[in-house]
Design goal:
By secondary structure, this protein is mainly α. It is built from seven helices and two strands, in the order ααβαααααβ. The chain starts with a helix and ends in a 5-residue tail after the last strand.
Length: 151
C-alpha cells in the first residue's frame, strides 16, 4: 500500500473510532489551552505563516462547510428541516451525518436519504470559507487532505 493510501485509510479509521467524541464536540486528544492572541493576531499570524511557507498542507473537514452555512450536517435546524424534513419526521435525526450512522430497516428509504444528501451537497454553492482558503493559498504549492463527506 502506498504512503498516501495508508494515510487515507488511517485517517478514516481514526474518524470512525472517534466519531462519537467528535459528534459531541470533543476531541480524543488533549488540546493546548486557549490562545492568548486576539482573533486579528491569529489571522495575521496565519497569513504570515502561509506567506513564509514553501508549501502548505491543509487539513480540513466539514467544519469549513458548516462555517459557511452548511450547518445541516450536525444539527436539527431550519436548514436541516428544509432538505431532510421528511426523514426527520420519521427517523428523528439530529443532522444529516446522524442519518448516515443510523440503522435503516428500509433500504429504499436509506437510498432516498443518500440521494438527498448527495443532491444537497453537490448542488450547494461554494461557501465563503472555501473562497477564503483559495485566496490564502493563491500562488502557493499546496495539498488539501480532508475527511469531507460533503465533497
Amino acid at each position: 500500500m502506498s504512503f498516501y493510501k495508508d494515510l487515507v485509510m488511517q485517517t478514516q479509521m481514526n474518524f470512525q473510532k472517534y466519531y462519537g467524541i467528535y459528534r459531541r464536540g470533543g476531541t480524543p486528544y488533549e488540546l493546548a489551552g486557549p490562545s492568548k492572541l486576539s482573533m486579528d493576531e491569529k489571522i495575521d499570524r496565519l497569513v504570515q505563516e502561509i506567506r513564509d511557507a514553501d508549501c502548505v498542507i491543509v487539513g480540513g473537514a466539514s467544519g469549513l462547510s458548516a462555517a459557511g452555512g452548511g450547518n445541516f450536517y450536525y444539527e436539527n435546524n431550519d436548514s436541516f428541516k428544509k432538505y431532510f424534513g421528511k426523514f426527520e419526521e420519521v427517523y428523528h435525526f439530529n443532522g444529516a451525518f446522524d442519518g448516515m450512522f443510523r440503522h435503516w430497516n428500509d433500504r429504499a428509504a436509506f437510498w432516498a436519504f443518500l440521494a438527498t444528501f448527495l443532491h444537497t451537497t453537490l448542488t450547494a454553492p461554494i461557501r465563503a470559507p472555501y473562497h477564503d482558503l483559495d485566496s490564502l493559498l493563491k500562488g502557493k504549492d499546496f495539498f488539501v487532505i480532508t475527511t469531507n463527506q460533503d465533497t
